[in-house]
């Protein structure tokens, strides 16, 4: 693939991404190959992900996705709702050593996957997602991390680590810090109650609402409790880059060891967290093909509960951190962004 074509497509995507995301049903825009009747045409374009494809007659002119943008083709892909993976699924209790690829979870949440081992100075940490280890911004440093996760039968005696750090997920608002705004909301609530209203106002602060990673760290009870050897894969050999068409693999708590291929890069996507969505930029999208790269998309690389899995290329280089998806696609944070955000390096 001509690098100049990718750079051109990335610029066009940057120019149009916000307008595309404003269209009905659109939840993501990335750069990938255009598929026709499920077969890869080999033509580079903008992949526009929608919750559900609808006939043109059901869409207004403003909600139609153009077939081309500044000379670059578009491809509309029906993915369903993209959700953070955290549903139920049985997994084993690993002792005395816990390997990446197995079930872990915040003590009061469900279960996800221990992705890989990382380090900060001389200290080692377990890497996974914010929504796996920190219960979507609710956790506090020192909170218990269980193996297996609670949904897999983990109890208080199964604590192997504590929450150490996480990157907050920005949903576009946060509690107000302005005393005037809080006071105004209280006064308006007094008036509303006096008029018989049962509704309440809450002062909030607008935030950028854009994210790069869903990531968190857990501090193991002792260094010898965890290994850097990913279950069914082995120890990572380093950090790699996820380019279009690159074959990848992962081991996750729900689907075990699976393989797929990168189908989009630089994707901007809305991810659903139990009814509230967060916008993520610069993401990687992967899928499973029925054959070679020219084959049809035949499913996702992962299922709910695989969140937190490290995604590696076939040379065992970590390229990303899995965190969301649907029945069609898997969404991955680029590993460089994850390591940078948490100020850690890969433990090899």
> Structural class from helices and strands?
mainly beta
> Which architecture of the largest domain does the CATH hierarchy give at level 2?
Beta Barrel
Low-confidence stretches: none
Helix content: 10-25%
CATH class of the largest domain: Mainly Beta
- The coarse silhouette is globular
Largest sheet: 8 strands, antiparallel
Give the N-terminus to C-terminus distance in angstroms. 31 Å
**Gyration radius, to the nearest Å?**
21 Å
CATH superfamily (homologous) name of the largest domain: Trypsin-like serine proteases
- H-E order: HEEEEEEEEEHEEEHEEEEEEEEEEEHE
Average pLDDT, rounded to a whole number, is 88
Widest sheet: strand order? 7-6-10-11-15-9-8-24
The structural domain count equals: 3
Might you state the CATH topology name of the largest domain? Thrombin, subunit H
Classify the beta-strand content into a percent band.
Answer: 35-45%
The number of E-state strands comes to 24
List keywords for this structure.
348 residues, mainly beta, Thrombin, subunit H, 8-stranded antiparallel β-sheet, 6-stranded antiparallel beta barrel, 4 helices, globular
Description:
The chain has four helices and 24 strands. It has helices spanning 3-21, 130-133, 179-194, 335-342; strands at 26-36, 39-50, 68-69, 72-78, 83-84, 103-106, 112-113, 116-120, 123-128, 144-146, 159-166, 173-175, 204-206, 210-211, 216-220, 238-239, 247-252, 256-273, 276-289, 297-299, 310-313, 317-325, 330-334, 345-346. With 348 residues, it is mainly β. The strands form three sheets. An eight-stranded antiparallel β-sheet has the order 7-6-10-11-15-9-8-24. A six-stranded antiparallel beta barrel has the order 17-18-19-23-22-21. Strands 12-13 form a two-stranded antiparallel ribbon.
